[in-house]
Predict the 3D structure of the following.
Amino acid sequence: MDFQEQVVLVTGGSRGIGRAVVQALAARGARVMFCYLSRCEAAEETLQRCQDLPGEVVAHKADVRDAAAVAGLVSSANERWGRLDCLVNCVSLANFAPVDTLSLEQWRMVLDTNLTGIYHTCRQVLRPMMQRRYGRIVNVAGVHGRGGVPGQSDYSAAMGGVLGLTRALAR
C-alpha cells in the first residue's frame, strides 16, 4: 500500500510493534511523527533506522496519559504538515503480577497508558478527521483483551477496553 505524502501519528513508536509500524510507513513514503515517553535512546534508534527511507520521520516526547501532552503532540503534527491522515496507537505497558499482588498504582498506570492514552489520542484526532471527511484510526490491542492472561489482569482489562472503544468508534 502506498502511503506517499500521508501524515501519520504513531504512539509508542520507539520500540517493538510501534517501531516496526514507523519503519513500514516511512518505507512507503509516509510522513510519520511518533511519540515516546522516556526511552530517548530507543527513539533515536528508530530515527536512525528510518534515515534512508523515502518517508520523513520525526520523534516527539509525550505522555499519552496526559490530555494536554496529547493535544500538543497532535498540534505539533498539524503545525508541521497541516493535517493528520492516520493515527496508529501502539503504545503499551504491561505488568507481570497476579491480581492479588498488583497494587492499585500499577493497575492505574497500565489502564491510564493502554486505555486512557488511546482515548486521549482518538479524541484529539477524531473531530478534525470527521470535518475533513477523511482519516483512519488503527488501535493495536493484544489478544489478552479477548480471553485474559494469568498474571496480567491489568493488561487484559485494558486490551478489552481498547477493543470496545475501537468498535464503538467504528460505529
